[in-house]
Amino acid sequence: MQGEGSLGSPDTRPCFYKVMSPANYKLDELLIPSDFKEHIILRKEESDGMIVSGGGKWYVELIKDEEEGDIYIRNGWQEFAKHHSLGNLEFLLFHYNGDLSFDVTIFNKDGTEKTYQPN
User: Fold this and answer.
1) pTM score, two decimals?
2) I need a surface site. Which of 9, 25, 71, 84 has the fewest CB within 10 A?
């Protein structure tokens, strides 16, 4: 995983989190926070990206809504969400590696990290 260093070394990659709740949870897409958009450069309306979690990789598309300026993770997000059985009040921490690639750590409602078999 990028950003890992010796014990105590800070991870300086840009990051954001999402708490899965009925208000923001959609199986087919994930909205990237508006304040995080400055870190993402899309060369066209739809660009290929990647999510890495628990040793697995999921290929996704990052799509920009030209009217609103919002960026969504779509095509591939559904497979990621299903594989990880994402549920209400789970916490996802996204570290941005650049080049439309994210490392994602998922935490259960109780604050413990979820573990999975690679896809």
Assistant:
1) 0.85
2) 9
